[in-house]
Amino acid sequence: MTKKKGGSELFKYAVGTLCVLAAAVSAIFAKSSGAFEKNKVPEAENTADTTVEFLDVGQGDCTLVSSAGHYMLIDTGDRDSDDGVLNYLKESGIETLDCMLLTHPHADHIGEAADIAEQIEVKSIIMPLVPEELTPTSAVYEELLDTIEEKGIDFFQAEDDKLSLGSCEVFTYAPEEEYSSLNNYSVLVKIVHGENSFLITGDCEVQEEKEYLKRGIDLSADVLKAAHHGSDTSSSSEWLSAVLPQYTVISCGAGNKYGHPDDETYSRICKYSPKVYITAEDGGILFYSDGKGLSVKTGRKLTGE
Hints:
The protein has 305 residues and is α/β, with parallel strands linked by helices. Helix content is 26%, strand content 26%. The protein has a single domain, classed as Metallo-beta-lactamase, Chain A (4-Layer Sandwich). The two termini are 32 Å apart.
């Protein structure tokens, strides 16, 4: 992965500052492969050099992007006793991640990050810089910061930027306004491969959606990863009408205690998106892109599922 801007000094500042904060409080946060079920005739599968896979990590988010031999992981799901994402990467023969992009530091998005970075080469990590009062003090966050420092991994503050990954362009957008919810500091990620595009939203809520809409960012995408697990805090009509996805993926755990996805939100998404997948029901969702068409497979399970 190539970057336009460096961040070594930011890394030293962020790790130095956040490690102190993380160490102040000790709070502990304590899926083998299944067969795919074909969702449709795989028109693009045989010619695809790029895949975007929304892994079924239960109540969390994790997206694996592969393009021309290069790999990027967006979020890692929560920590589990089976190291599901880590083992999946190993089983897939992935030894190096060009980038690990963590949309925001909630445990269900960064839980396995430290373990992955310990056992797989990670060239760079991107995270948003959040206000001191919202900085997590969770064990998984503290361990991640320690691992970044110990491994000497290049650390970059998320910002409006354009990266390259194989034959893809990856656009990142960071919020400019101030919010009271950590969810609204989620990094927005748009992946463009030829005529195909994917929009990854972290836990972005309506307030952050409004900011991006106001800024006039091109939000249109063929595939949308619905924000905040399909909760009632996100996916406004204005947002969905700007994205107009052909496919939407909602990542959540079966029978989760939050009631995700919210019924009204799900119904609203269905008005704008012809096809909606839910990882709790469909398993992992794998998109093949040849730069013109998309093909989809569903059903991948991780260890412990």
